[in-house]
Amino acid sequence: MLKGNPSRRPVVVAPTETLAPDVAKAPKHLSAAGRNIWDRLAPDLVRAKILRVTDRELFALLVDALEDFYSATKLLKKQGLSYVSSSPHTPEMRRLNPLYLIKDRSRREAIRLMNMCGMSPVSRTAVFAHLAREAGGQVHDALPANAAPPEEAGLYGQRH
Q1: By the 8 A CB rule, do 155 and 116 touch?
Q2: Handedness of CA 137, 138, 140, 146 (dihedral sign)
């Protein structure tokens, strides 16, 4: 049987922010492919209260990274992972297609931005744990007692 909050720990409530009616509308500077990505993801993120007005620019960067990833992936399927080049000293040399680097960098950037936006289970858990600690509460048993705050978990930039 549930007994409410017997230990009288503070209840963590996420900060509220007014949602503008057009927060799910794609910015005009996005390409057609970017708008398609935005239109596919944004409505669900708004309903889940993950995408807010203050996050639009960051989410637009994520959409750009996803667009680059999808474009590079599509071109790589046509061109292949490598190509053959030659020079006066080497008749034939197989090289990695530069699109692979674009795909890999945009994938990494998309994952980094998704973590910053709270769009992964790990980042949502870390943000919740950090808010609970800041409020003076204890993190529930479902979370590890030593969970790192978001900045230590790499959610607010890469550690050097």
Answers
A1: yes
A2: positive
Both tokens of residue 10?
């503070």
Element (H, E) at 46: helix 32-47
Round to whole Å and give the CA distance between 149 and 127: 7
Task: Please state, in angstroms and rounded to a whole number, the distance separating the CA atoms of residues 143 and 125.
Answer: 8
Measured from the Cβ of residue 64, the count of other Cβ atoms closer than 10 Å reads 19
pLDDT exceeds cutoff 70 at 157: no
- Please give the pLDDT value at position 59: 94
Q: What is the C-alpha to C-alpha distance for residues 115 and 119, in angstroms, rounded to an integer?
A: 6
| φ/ψ (deg, to 5) at 61 | -65, -40
Q: Tell me the three state secondary structure of residue 94.
A: strand
Cα R_g (the chain), whole angstroms: 22
Q: What is the length of the chain? A: 160
Find out whether 52 and 15 touch, Cβ atoms under 8 Å: no
Tell me, rounded to whole angstroms, the distance of Cα 10 from its chain centroid. 29
Q: Which amino acid does the sequence have at 147?
A: A
The DSSP element (H or E) to which 60 belongs, if any, is helix 56-79
Place of tokens 């203050």: 54
Q: What is the pLDDT of residues 35-58, one digit of tens each?
A: 999 999 999 888 877 788 888 999
